[in-house]
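This part of the workshop introduces the protein records we will be handling. An example says more than a description, so a record of this kind follows.
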Amino acid sequence: MALSATPRWAGRLVVVQALKRKRCARCRRGPLSLLVLTDGAPWCLVCADLGHLVFLPRGDTALTRRSREESALSAVVVRFNRRKSRYERQGVLVEEAALARAEARCLADAEARRRRRARDARRRAAEDERFVAAFAAEILRLFPGCPAERARAIAAHAAVRGSGRVGRSAAGRALTEGAVISAVVAGVRHVDTPYDQLLMRGVAWNEARRRIAPTVERVLRAWQGAGEEDAG
């Protein structure tokens, strides 16, 4: 059977890391660690004409990209994540000679790529520093009674890259009032109330939030009220 019958991942051939013990529907070899679904049936890599490829785990972006560039035939390796109910990429299969050529290319310019990564890291750090400062300033504008060190701590926590926290959302990056207030509320909840202890004792998060809501409101009003007193 032709490889065109193999499922594809963003236009590429797909190989699946097996979670269950399966045998090849064609040659009965097994159990299979890697398989190709052909018309819904599991085939081993040899029967799917992919047996000569070698596995390159994900993690090195440059090596993966160059290996695929060098390889006339390649496939994406995926595994099903039961908790998230989706397939996730684990690496690629490429020709062994292509991997060797890609490794040689990466070794040749490793120092240049290291310097570029260092420059990118410094640039991101500077951007993050400016963003945290702007976020903290907006906190102090909305809550003038908030201690400056707390405002910065809340801003830094909310703005961690890749955290999924409110500071990294579109609203957070735009410094919208709602996003800033949400970050402050979260900061107060975890620092100024027994919220974390309640969760550790097995209290459901919605019940824990209900219990600590008066304390959160009291702190927010105190931080807001300082500005009103100064204006008066």
Notes: The radius of gyration is 26 Å. Strands lie at 8-9, 12-17, 34-38, 41-43, 53-57, 75-81, 86-95.
